[in-house]
């Protein structure tokens, strides 16, 4: 190995270690703050029904899966050829980037981990933004619809949901999104980006909206499982699925509002929305505990799955480095060649 390649390999290793350290620090800060909030309300974790907490974490991961599949579909629509496994792996590991200030690490992790043939960083990153904006748009519209039908007295929260939904939804309209990408001068990096964007059409976006509706519904189920784990919430959960509209609207709005803020992981903002929505029905203590418990269960589920996925290598074919633009898989060390899937 030449000295240049050796130094490049060492530099990449150093960058990876720094990224891992930042992610671990961000995750730990979120967990520590969440546990402190629970202790402040004199609640003991020993009271919980832990099988429901585990179910909440699993439903969160299951609800995120349709969004990850949509990201894969966006890349293929824009003439990229990632392997399905590496895309899903990169998607879930990339989740941890939102706990680092700036949240840009989500894009860095996804674009560096996804592998395939001829991947172009600019197109892969564009797909990340399209997927994220669609997720925010669908979540906001979903929340707005539920609040308008069942909880119209929450005027401020309804206005917030409608505002975010309209803004994000407008940006994700294919002609608008394509125009924005071109205005950002991405063509200087990738001269053929306009051809790639042509694949991002209404049919693909409609598919994404359907996938996200399924995902958000499962995330509402995660909050349902969280409430089922708290004994003090039993009296209000006796009605079963009659509580689901409130829980689904709550989790949608909390995540969307938390995402549009610059705070890592939406810490504090997400909990405020949950407490605002839940306290009138469940009381202040249960509202606080549910908000914190939801964060902890999701965090632990994300960390556990990301650890497992990171330990499993993403085998990918050699890239051709088309357009002279470095592809994510070219800069990812220890990449083994494999046959490209059909």
Quick summary of this structure?
This protein is 70% helix and 1% strand.
Number of helices: 13
Structural class comes to mainly alpha
Structure summary, number of beta strands: 2
Summarize model confidence as the mean pLDDT.
81
What count of structural domains? 1
| Biggest β-sheet description | 2 strands, antiparallel
Please give the order of strands in the largest beta sheet.
Answer: 1-2
Q: Termini, distance in Å?
A: 34 Å
How large is the radius of gyration?
Answer: 21 Å
Poorly predicted parts: 316-324, 326-342
Helix content: 55-70%
Explain this structure.
The protein has a two-stranded antiparallel ribbon. It is built from 13 helices and two strands, in the order H-H-E-H-H-E-H-H-H-H-H-H-H-H-H. The protein has one domain. The chain is mostly helical and about 350 residues long. Helix 3 (about 85-95) runs antiparallel to helix 4 (about 105-115). It has helices at about 5-40, 50-75, 85-95, 105-115, 120-150, 155-170, 175-185, 195, 200-230, 235, 245-260, 270-280, 285-310; strands at about 80, 115.
Task: Give structural attributes.
342 residues; mainly alpha; two-stranded antiparallel ribbon; 13 helices; 2 strands; disordered C terminus
Mind sketching the topology for me?
Blueprint lengths: L2 H38 L9 H28 L3 E2 L1 H11 L10 H9 L2 E2 L3 H30 L4 H17 L2 H10 L9 H5 L4 H27 L5 H4 L6 H17 L8 H14 L1 H28 L31
Antiparallel strand pairs: 1-2
Helix pairs in contact: 1-13, 2-3, 2-5, 2-9, 2-13, 3-4, 3-13, 4-5, 5-6, 5-9, 5-11, 9-11, 9-13, 11-12, 12-13
């Amino acid at each position: 190995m030449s000295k240049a390649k050796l130094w490049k390999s060492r530099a990449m290793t150093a960058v990876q270690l720094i990224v891992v350290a930042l992610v671990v620090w961000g995750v730990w800060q979120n967990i520590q703050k969440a546990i402190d909030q629970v202790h402040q309300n004199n609640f003991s974790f020993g009271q919980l029904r832990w099988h429901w907490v585990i179910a909440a974490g699993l439903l969160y991961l299951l609800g995120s899966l349709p969004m990850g599949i949509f990201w894969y579909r966006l890349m293929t629509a824009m003439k990229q050829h990632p392997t399905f496994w590496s895309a899903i792996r990169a998607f879930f590991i990339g989740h941890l980037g939102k706990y680092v200030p700036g949240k840009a690490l989500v894009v860095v992790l996804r674009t560096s981990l996804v592998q395939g043939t001829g991947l172009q960083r600019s197109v892969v990153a564009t797909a990340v933004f399209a997927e994220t904006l669609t997720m925010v748009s669908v979540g906001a519209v979903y929340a707005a619809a539920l609040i308008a039908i069942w909880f119209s007295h929450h005027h401020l929260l309804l206005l917030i949901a409608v505002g975010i939904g309209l803004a994000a939804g407008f940006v994700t309209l294919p002609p608008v999104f394509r125009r924005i990408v071109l205005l950002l001068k991405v063509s200087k990096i990738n001269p053929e980006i306009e051809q790639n964007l042509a694949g991002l059409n209404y049919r693909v976006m409609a598919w994404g909206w359907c996938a996200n509706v399924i995902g958000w519904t499962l995330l509402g189920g995660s909050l349902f499982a969280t409430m089922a784990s708290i004994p003090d919430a039993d009296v209000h959960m006796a009605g079963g699925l009659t509580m689901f509209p409130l829980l689904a609207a709550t989790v949608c709005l909390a995540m969307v509002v938390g995402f549009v803020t610059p705070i890592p992981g939406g810490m504090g903002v997400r909990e405020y929305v949950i407490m605002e929505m839940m306290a009138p029905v469940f009381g202040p203590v249960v509202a606080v505990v549910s908000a914190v418990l939801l964060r902890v269960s999701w965090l632990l589920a994300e960390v556990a799955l990301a650890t497992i996925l990171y330990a499993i290598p993403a085998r990918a074919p050699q890239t051709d480095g088309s357009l002279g633009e470095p592809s994510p898989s070219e800069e990812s060390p220890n990449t083994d060649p494999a046959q490209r899937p059909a």
